[in-house]
Amino acid sequence: MSDPVEIFEVGPRDGLQNEKRLIPAADKIALVDLLSTAGFRRIEVTSFVSPKWVPQMGDAAEVMAGITRAPGISYAVLTPNLKGYEGARAARASEIAVFASASEGFSKANLNATIAESLERMRPVIEAAKADGIPVRGYVSVVTDCPFDGPTPPCNVARVAALLRDMGCYEISLGETLGKGRAETVDAMLTAVLSEVPAARLAGHFHDTEGRALENIDVSLARGLRVFDAAVGGLGGCPYAPGAKGNVATERVADHLAELGHPTGLDMEIVRRAADLARSLR
Ligand code: HMG
Ligand code: MG
User: Fold this and answer.
1) For the segment 49-102, what is each residue's pLDDT rounded down to a tens digit?
2) Is residue 212 part of a domain?
3) DSSP alpha helices (H): ranges in 133-212?
4) Which residue's CA is minimally distant from atom 20 of ligand 1?
5) Ligand 1 in contact with 47 (CB < 6 A)?
6) Which positions fall inside the Pyruvate carboxyltransferase domain (predicted)?
7) Fewest Cβ atoms nearer than 10 Å: which of 38, 43, 110, 215?
């Protein structure tokens, strides 16, 4: 048997945020509640972002208030600024996630800020969370390819990951937002990041636009990563990354890890039911 690997379920947030039809909060709550019985330790529920930017996440407070929390599960939310943090704290989020970009083009499109401005905006959010005892996870997006700036230099990813670590993020999730990464580009990116941040504090976040997410997970496993983000049903995409399609599907990652002998602790019958439910919401 190989090492256990954790799948961090991001379906209710990253899976649904890009859907055009406004999904009723009750359906999102039902999805989270089903996922809470599947064996996940962390579930990303929603985002406290501007509803002008991402209307689908405009019901964040209602969704957080409606879910039934299971003991031992961390219910995570995205927070881009202090306003989002206040919403997350009021909603009793177990942890928050801040998100930065490795390219200037995506930073501007996703956050209306340069990388430096977005990191400065995050600083008080992380400080406030620390003071409140709320753990903070950090994302770096477009880690291999950017829809606006082209290939991302690995040293840019390493720099932003190290800054997020220095600011106090307990884990850095490496977002391959576009799904264009290849084994060689992912490996080169990881070489740079691992020179700054150890594998135990990293997670892989792969979108499967071109069908290479599992291959890229294999590369990351070989480099020591043991946490991967995934979304049930393979839904998703980023509204500010044109061409980015679904997240890698949780059920595919779990089956793949099982074949490699990595236990995930998930109840696959429930995961498959959650995948059917997620797909029915589009
Ligand atoms: P801005 O327009 O520069 O901000 O956006 P602003 O401060 O001028 O605010 C504009 C309006 O939004 C104001 O309302 C604010 O009050 C309101 P008005 O006064 O006009 O009525 N507002 C908010 N409302 C609720 N909650 C908030 C909030 N903040 C402002 N937190 C901002 C800047 C950062 C707000 C905006 O760009 C934003 O919300 N961006 C988020 C975009 C997003 O959610 N993208 C998807 C998630 S990232 C992703 O998917 C990648 C990832 O999966 C990893 C990967 O795959 O790479 C994580
Ligand atoms: Mg994503």
Assistant:
1) 999 999 999 999 999 999 999 999 999 999 999 999 999 999 999 999 999 999
2) yes
3) 154-167, 183-194
4) 52
5) yes
6) 5-272
7) 215
- Establish if 254 belongs to a structural domain: yes
Active site residues: 238
Of 178, 194, 192, which is closest to residue 142 (Cα–Cα)? 178
CATH assignment at residue 49 = 3.20.20.70
Q: Which domain holds residue 206?
A: 6-281
Q: pTM for this structure?
A: 0.98
Task: Please report the ipTM that was assigned to this predicted complex.
Answer: 0.98
Please write the tens of the pLDDT for every residue from 208-253. Answer: 999 999 999 999 999 999 999 999 999 987 778 787 779 999 999 9
| Burial of 61 (C-beta count, 10 Å sphere; 0-12/13-18/19+) | middle
What is the enclosing helix (H) or strand (E) of 43? strand 42-47
Residue 1 lies in a domain: no
Closest C-alpha to ligand 1, atom 2: 112
| Pocket lining: 106 vs ligand 1, CB cutoff 6 Å | no
